[in-house]
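Okay, any thoughts on this one?
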Amino acid sequence: MSVSGQRICRLAEQASSATVPGEALRLVRALRDEINDFERQQVARALTAGEPVSAVARALGVSRQSAHRRFRDLVPPRTRARRSRPTPEARLVVEYARREAREAAVGAVGSEHLLLGMLRAGDDQTLTELGVTFDAAQSAARAVSAQGRDRAEVGQEVRLALAEAAQRARRAGADRVGLEHILFGALSDPAGGATAVLHALGVTPDAVTAAVAKRA
C-alpha cells in the first residue's frame, strides 16, 4: 500500500474514533489533504499511462476543462519536444522532493529529496521491495541534510541528477523521463545525499540499479 493509502486508513480510523470535536476536525482536515495527494498520484499515473484528460475528468465526475485547470501542471504538452520531457509521475516526484526539502527547512533540494519523492509518489516498487520505507528514508534524509552541506553544492547535485536522468532516457531511446531514470539520476553521485540515505538503511545503490534493470 502506498504512503498516502496507509495515511488515509490511519487518519480515517483516528477521526472516526475521536471523542473531542476539535480533534476530529483536525484529523478530517489532514485526511482531506491526504486524499487530495492520493488523487494527484492517481491522476499522474493515469496521464503517464497515456489516458487523456477527458478520461480523468469522467472518472472524477467533472468537466474536462475543470480537470485540465486543476491538474494543468501534470498534463503533458501536446506538442512534441526535441528533448525528453518528464512524465506526469516524474513531475510529481520533483514536486514532492521540493515539499520534503521545505518541510525539513533545508536551503536546497538534494538528491535525497528526490529519493523521498519517489517513495511518496507511491508507485515505485523497487525501493519498497528492497525494504526501503518512506518513514525510515525520511529520517535518514533529514540526518543527511543536518550535516550542514553547502547549499550551492546540494543544488548542483540535484541539477546533475536530473540531467543524468534525461541522458538516461535519451540513451534508452525513451521520449520521456520516467521514474526509473530519476532513480538512476539520484543515485549517480556516489557521494550524493540519495546514496548516503540508502547506505544508512543498509541498501546499496548497486542493489537498486540491479532491481530496476531486472524489472525493465
